[in-house]
Amino acid sequence: MVFREMILPFILLTTCFAAWGVAANMTDPLVKVFSKIFTMSAFQSALVQFAYYGAYFCLALPAAFINRRFSYKTGVLTGLGFAAAGAFMFYPASQSMSYGYFLAALFILAAGLSILETSANPFVIAMGPVENATRRLNFAQAFNPVGCNIGVFLGATLILTQLNPATAQQRAEMAADQLSAIQAAELDAVMLPYVGMACALVLIWLAIAALKIRPTREKVVAHTRDVRFGETLTRLVRNPHYRFGVIAQFFNVGAQTCIWTFTIQYVMDALSVNEARAGDYLQYSLILFLLARFAMTWLMGYVSASRLLAGLSVLAALLSAYLTVGSGYAAVWALVAISGCLSLMFPTIYGIALKGLGADTKFGAAGLVMAILGGALLPMVQGAVIDTWGTATSFLVPAVCFLVVARYGLFDMQSGPRRAEQGRAVTA
């Protein structure tokens, strides 16, 4: 009976997973887009990801307090509201033609998505038995790459195709009025899909607000003073498995963001094509990511999640290292293949790290979302490497990140049986 009551809420939550996939993957091409529009270095344009993923870090903990004091539903609605407001801000940003205004809009959008993600992931975990929580979360997360593909498609068709072909040198030689007209048209193209997404987020907000949702495994405290954050934080920090999980998530998100942020630039260099054609390969990457997510969810019925995590992380590290010496189509398809390896990493690390946390789960979830800070910092590191040594060499950055994730998978394989016993004891 409880399961049937959770079906509609679960379906609505999957639309949230898709929504932040749309936002994240419309944002990835903006690094190259703003680099061209405003004639900036790779490091400067990577501030897009700093603003986006930095907001995830800043808002995850407040989201945990919202979830703990009120409910997961309240957290989801708060996140959707902030995200819609940030997306609507792209309209005044396009009128101002200011890079800083776009960064502010991205920060507010991502702040909402941080609250949304901090709430939705443990919400799904609380909707059923502990035994299959990681697999259930992988299934819900499988709809995230659906949104990712939509985001890449919108970015490629509505933004990248609208970029003026003029080079940085040609733009520098233009009259101020001519350059301003070109930039205005390009920034209008950036604005349109974000305002459309804002409208979709409002519709999702209304649908979820109309439902009465309370998972049986969710605990809400009656008073703010009952939230003993210091004690909770101490327990989480002293838990080596959770602590390592946060570190692994930091490097996982950093690697994923690096790969998708600089795919277009790598393909342009490797195949000598323009932004729109290179964007097709980012789309192929996300299609593979989508298919692999469903395949890995099925495969987890036969192979342990930690074993899959370790194996695919090692493969991703090897493929990333190959990009530094490879060339042509072989290297480009190796880059695309990395997205297949990425497919299971985020939800698997998330589910494994939260096992056995009991009442600390809501704040534990916040820590794992704060680890998304890796997506803010590591692309800037890679951007600096690109400016100094070139695009190909820069892929050593995600290669190192994947090795850290692989080590966490091995760590869970070694400690898994003991933690399973502890988890059953907590549940009992």
UniProtKB/TrEMBL annotation:
It comes from Marinobacterium lacunae. The lineage of its organism: Bacteria, Pseudomonadati, Pseudomonadota, Gammaproteobacteria, Oceanospirillales. GO terms for molecular function: fucose:proton symporter activity. The keyword Phosphoprotein does not apply. SUPFAM superfamilies: MFS general substrate transporter (SSF103473). It is found in: Cell inner membrane. Gene3D superfamilies: MFS general substrate transporter like domains. InterPro entries: Lfuc_symporter_FucP (IPR005275), MFS (IPR011701), MFS_trans_sf (IPR036259), MFS_TsgA-like (IPR050375). It is a multi-pass membrane protein. One of its GO terms (cellular component) is plasma membrane. This is Fucose permease. Keywords: Cell membrane, Membrane, Transmembrane, Transmembrane helix. The chain crosses the membrane at residues 47-67, 74-93, 99-116, 137-160, 191-211, 244-262, 282-301, 308-325, 331-353, 365-386, 392-410. Signal peptide: none annotated.
